[in-house]
Amino acid sequence: MSSTILVTGCAGFIGSHLCERLLHDGYRVIGIDNFDDFYPRATKEANLEIFAKHPRFSFIEVDLRNGARALAEHVTEPVDLVAHLAAKAGVGPSVKDPAGYMETNVLGTTHLLEWMRQQEVHNLFFASSSSVYGNTPELPFEEEASMLKAAVSPYAASKLAGEELIYTYHHLYQLKALCARFFTVYGPRQRPDLAIHKFARLLRAGQPIPVFGDGHTARDYTFVDDTVEGIARGIAYLLAQEAPVYELVNLGNHHPVSLLELIEAVGKAVGVEPQLSFQVPQAGDVEITYADITKAQHMLGYAPQTKLAEGLRQFVQWLDGAPVQAHHA
Ligand SMILES: NC(=O)c1ccc[n+]([C@@H]2O[C@H](COP(=O)([O-])OP(=O)(O)OC[C@H]3O[C@@H](n4cnc5c(N)ncnc54)[C@H](O)[C@@H]3O)[C@@H](O)[C@H]2O)c1
User: Fold this and answer.
1) Is the CB of 100 under 6 A from ligand 1?
2) How far is the CA of 10 from the centre of ligand 1 (A)?
3) Which of 3, 145, 202, 281 could form a disulfide with 207 if both were Cys (CB 3.0 to 4.6 A apart)?
4) Centroid of ligand 1 to alpha carbon of 291 (angstroms)
5) 5, 235 in Cβ contact below 8 A?
6) pLDDT digits over 217-251, tens only?
7) DSSP for 275-302?
8) 89 lines ligand 1 (CB under 6 A)
9) pLDDT average per 10 residues of sequence, the chain (329 residues)
């Protein structure tokens, strides 16, 4: 019988793509989400609708902050692996609401780990973030880099704490765990707060694009299908392990793009010449993210495929409401 995967944050941007992919691969999928109000519930319900009726999918509305008991009450089927994507995401908003980020990302993760221990669920894939590297000077970022005094935002600190907590459960209870650091994921259904989505809306409205700093900050933008391919490979890797493991792995693109280059590319994809409005840098932002993906290549056979122009084309097609070709089919 196929394995059962519990996906937390299943109604979100990456979580919804992951559910589609896992269902396509033959897994049973239980999705949980609390429809956090970071962006509209209707957007998340629309994400969920795409696969909600699949015979191997079931959805449970539950809030991780309500503790292990709430999870035990709602999740009654045996689970083989948890893909933990639920979180309060985003660097800027975390500066304004640090306690809220800690409640979901750290306390919520602790409750999930306790539930896993009680239910004897031995496999965990965790969505961590490139933000844990902060302004680490050595480029590209390697998994073995020291993470002491690295986090420069509450969001980054919460993800680093998540990785450490998971290590603790690996150490105490022989959890098999993979913490994957995602690098600025974009594509259809992207969160509305993220740069590409925001820029496309502003361009369409004929408004200027705010450029925080001088425009030379850079991000290792990764297309969502490539990230999801890495997650699917990470899940298969964990399920194949006999002995406890704890691994950190970068799922980036190994190709940083500067903010000015990004704006130009989004302008081309949308078909509008961008007007720029320079602003002071935002608190908590880092200079550059740049993934060393050697470990992911060796361990998982991960090799991102999608060029920025093609990924932006698919994003804009989605934004315009045209059916995006079933990419996991
Ligand atoms: N998008 C990126 O560029 C990126 C980069 C690095 C890491 N990540 C991580 O990947 C994961 C998914 O990110 P995303 O961009 O899809 O974000 P998202 O906000 O679209 O998805 C997160 C989902 O988690 C749910 N959630 C939040 N709090 C919850 C709670 N207490 N209980 C249950 N569900 C809860 C939300 O309702 C949402 O549907 C997050 O852990 C994020 O930190 C994302």
Assistant:
1) no
2) 9
3) 202
4) 20
5) yes
6) 999 999 999 999 999 999 999 999 999 999 999 99
7) PEEEEPPPTT--SB--B--HHHHHHH--
8) yes
9) 94 98 98 97 97 98 98 97 97 96 98 98 98 95 92 97 98 98 97 94 96 95 98 98 98 98 98 96 91 98 98 96 59
Which residue bears the tokens 């962006």? 39
| Upstream peptide bond of 323 is cis (omega within 30 degrees of 0) | no
Which H or E run contains 6? strand 4-8
> CB-based contacts of 263: which residues, under 8 Å, 6+ apart?
199, 209, 211, 215, 274, 276
Structure-block tokens of residue 27 = 């897994």
pTM listed for this prediction: 0.97
The H or E element that residue 103 is part of is: none
Please work out whether the CB of residue 21 comes within 6 Å of at least one atom of ligand 1.
no
Which position has the token pair 């290549």?
297
The catalytic site residues sit at: 155
Q: Tell me, what's the pLDDT at 147?
A: 86
Task: Walk me through the domains of the chain, giving residue ranges and CATH numbers.
Answer: 4-319 (3.40.50.720)
CA distance 71 to 291: 34
Are 139 and 97 in contact by the 8 Å Cβ rule? The answer is: no
Tokens of 66: 């309500």
Cα–ligand 1 centroid distance for 14 (angstroms) = 7
160 lines ligand 1 (CB under 6 A): no
* Residue 209, token pair as written in the block: 């694009």
